[in-house]
Specification:
Two copies of one chain form a homodimer. By secondary structure, chain A is α/β, with parallel strands linked by helices. Chain A has helices at residues 18-28, 41-48, 73-79, 84-93, 106-117, 152-169, 191-202, 229-254, 258-279, 305-320, 323-330, and strands at 5-9, 34-39, 58-62, 99-102, 127-132, 139-142, 176-181, 207-213, 224-226, 287-290, 295-298. In chain A, strands 3-2-1-4-11-10-5-6-9-7-8 form an eleven-stranded mixed sheet, with helices on both faces. The longest helix of chain A is centred in the C-terminal third of the chain and has 26 residues, at 229-254. The interface between A and B is large, with 59 and 59 residues.
């Protein structure tokens, strides 16, 4: 087995352990590192029986407990030492694993990662990066969930960490960085954002291109956008809600009469193509939590095997790119 | 002529004066109040010649100057005393008009309205209300553009003012109010939002139902949502950008081969129906700026005659509902 291990929270997410185990088996066919499935041993082994896989690449680490989605983050991390999440995070801390992927409780994962794995020296706040759909390439948004009361100086670090990730995992040199704002002019925004603008202008190691209005994110003209986590979460959720609403009313309109039903039948492959290219996440994996002394990736709660496999594959690039050390150098 | 006058900024917006004048003529056919078109007299009169209309209901107020979209709000209001916007706002202040509708520079309109028309006694900050599309009825969001550094106590007043508007203009008693947040649990959010939650719970004159995640706004289960203007602007802009992006990629996908082209042809009326019902704004008019001693309505910059007419018709309901006095009583 490879000396490097990626740990996977087999019990985290809406479709665990069925899809998490299946995803790990899928990923093991191409990923060169070993995969540790963390969770209830008997349950995971039952799932593994369904597949043929390279036993040198997948193994199980027992964890009796599970952190549920409804639990309060800090209490859950403190009280459930034998949960798959806490054990997985400790594997990263202790060097037994180089990365941990979980589709479980987001708040608990972010809190646990910060407490257990710890921040890179100099990082003020780790940030969650999410790849957003656009008309061109995917756009990396930070922070999409970690710090809801961000200071301007955090946003500068988000830009620097995001640039390292973009260059080394997504393979584009000197990616452009935009500040999410309510207008393109430099004097726009609230007090924090105005301060962030002037700090970003002077910051090293980033290619800052100014303000980006939220309506222009999906044009895909800027590679990385930075904002506080409250705004980032709102952007993600509006995209999710509006997409679903538009698809539902489209479906309803298309089913309303014979003519449109015929149209829908003919147009169906085109719809599927959009849905796959624009709204599905298998190809991009999970959201990296940047700024920690190891890699922690949040997979979407409703991840299926394909999405879990995508998140695991993304870890390989992160590890090979030596992101943790490069972030430390960039700040 | 009616003793009550609605003033219209004939020069404001991307399609002024052609669509603003046409919109006023359209509205004059049903609105019982007089309509004053404010702007360059000769230009407006040229436009008016195109139509037959009741000369008792439409008249022109000359204004030599125009505030452009690129101008800084405070300077523009201070320096362009003879602009259509400043003259229209002064008509409201002086009681010559009961309402002013403009599709011009948003920042200048909000600044000018606050300075010239002035706040209702007790209102801390006037707020811009926008009607968002949803799967059920339209949802009123405040603040969608006025105060980017809002305090928790402002949000309580937004909820109260929005409730008065909803009851009297949209005709629904005891409308529900939600706080836009990053989760539904009461302990979620940034510092300002957490404080707003506890104030909203105790506030009079509103039907507060708790947090609403941004993805659930378009479900339409809550009538009114409140947030600071930075978040409100981001929500509006993400909706605008994503809708356009989805329509563009849908069109591209449908035009990609013969089969999907046939589908598009049959499905076309259904698409048009969605676009009309979900994304067009003629039926809802403009965004009311609530909390002032008179009515000021911001119409979308790209308003056509139908949207201008919608905004004017909405003023009639506002005036008949005696909203200014009812807001003063509610706080």
């Amino acid at each position: 087995m490879s000396d490097k291990i990626i740990a996977i929270d087999a019990m985290g997410g809406d479709n665990a352990p069925i899809e998490t185990v299946k995803g790990a088996v899928l990923a093991s066919k191409t990923v060169k590192y070993g995969l540790a499935l963390v969770g209830r041993e008997n349950v995971i082994n039952e799932e593994l029986k369904k597949y043929s896989y390279d036993a040198d690449k997948i193994f199980v680490v027992n964890a009796d407990d599970v952190i549920e989605n409804c639990e309060m983050p800090t209490e859950a991390i403190k009280n459930k030492k034998n949960s798959s999440m806490v054990i997985g995070l400790n594997m990263v801390k202790d060097g037994q694993a180089v990365a941990f992927v979980s589709a479980g409780n987001t708040g608990a994962l972010l809190t646990g990662a910060t407490i257990i794995v710890g921040r890179i020296k100099g990082v003020k706040r780790p940030a969650l990066g999410t790849m957003l759909p656009s008309e061109k390439n995917r756009v990396l948004m930070l922070d999409s969930g970690a710090n809801v009361d961000a200071k301007a100086e955090y946003l500068v670090q988000y830009a620097q960490m995001g640039s390292v990730y973009f260059e080394n995992v997504l393979g584009k040199d000197n990616p452009t960085v935009g500040l999410i704002n309510i207008g393109t002019e430099r004097e726009k925004g609230n007090a924090m954002v105005k301060e962030a603008y002037s700090l970003l202008e002077k910051a090293n190691g980033i290619n800052f291109v100014g303000n980006v209005e939220a309506r222009d994110i999906t044009l895909g003209d800027v590679d990385i956008v930075v904002c506080d986590a409250f705004v980032g979460n709102v952007i993600l959720k509006v995209m999710e809600g509006l997409s679903k609403t538009v698809l539902r009313i489209l479906k309803k309109a298309l089913m309303s009469n014979l003519r449109s039903k015929i149209g829908a039948l003919f147009a169906f492959p085109a719809f599927k193509k959009i849905q796959r290219e624009f709204f599905e996440y298998d190809d991009i994996g999970g959201a990296p939590f940047l700024g920690l002394k190891g890699l922690v990736v949040k997979a979407h709660g409703s991840s299926d095997a394909g999405a879990v496999a995508g998140a695991i594959k993304q870890c390989e690039k992160f590890i090979d790119g030596d992101i943790v050390n490069k972030i430390a150098e960039r700040l």
